[in-house]
Amino acid sequence: MTTCTSSREGQSRSNLGILFLRYKTHGPQVQLTIKWSTQTAVIGRGRVNCNIKPFVTFIPLSVSHRTASSEAMSCPCVLLSTGQKIPIVGLGTWKSAPGQVKQAVLSALDCGYRHVDCAAAYGNEHEVGEALTERVGDGKPLQREDLFVTSKLWNTQHHPDDVEAACRKTLTDLGLSYMDLYLMHWPMAFQRGTEVMPRNADGTIRYAYTHYTDTWKAMEKLVDQGLVKAIGLSNFNARQIDDILSIAKHKPVVNQVECHPYLIQSQLLSHCVERGVAVTAYSPLGSPDRPWAALGEPLLLDDPRVVDIAHRYGKTPAQVIIRWQVQRGVICIPKSVTPSRIQQNIQVFDFKLSSADMKQIESFNKNERLIIPTIEKDGKKVWRDTVHPHFPFHDPY
Question: Where is the NADP-dependent oxidoreductase domain positioned along the sequence (predicted)?
Fold first, then answer.
């Protein structure tokens, strides 16, 4: 058993905690339980020191950063291999419509979120930046160092000559001088240009074939220039992660992938944790608002098994699913533009799922990808980018 010590001696502690598993090739080998206090009167920051990574540290809001809605709010953080602390629950901004995302970010910051996940391809970073400008800076409720902001390099900007300009455009849109984390959104390159989805006359994507290792080397220069504090990956499979690690000067700190109870990603999670790469789950609630869902297709949040567990804990189905990810040590970025749901999604630190319920939720796995581009071919829906040599989902994980 790995032991941990906290620098917050003398503070009262609850019996709540997050259970983390240090994965080896054949499954969990080392078990670590981290506990924290639910007191909100503590000023300053607490740390949990431990000899394996990633792990969670308790970071309460300082008094000066609290609002009435965030009075009792605090969020554990995962310690990245760079030493950065990323809040384990953040706000996702994918599919947040123009005119909605600014208020969503403001609501999130006001109720205690300190982690915002963005991407150039979402087309709403300027609006996210407007919200950050209102809340962050001298004389405002938050300082820049209080936040963890992630964005992503889009597929049309994989050419090494395009990477810095893409990063600087995102920084301008967000109104920031640096990003905490910059991810390669996909391993596949599209044709260079201003179109987000460059297409041929027949509607197929115009691909490019810049290798992701060449893109990575250009991204490393962003770290050296101080434009980003760390870089990472998104939608990469295990083999592609190892390709990056084999050439990396600055190693990826995160791999952000689709992950929910219908796609639990256990093998990929094990692979990443072995290599000191944290995992972030996008669409952790199964993207219930995805417009391409078939009519009558069951939604994860309506799954009667999830609803039953939620009822037993007096929580919402979304809270149960987010808590399940937290107890696995997976960073979550649920998206919502509804203030009440935004607040509920981070209120997951006052209960703990039993080991039986954790196993039951894992048993829902169907290895089903809900978030993958598809096209119509011969009357059937098929994955769109399978012909690209860097398409990540041919591999088992």
Answer: 90-365
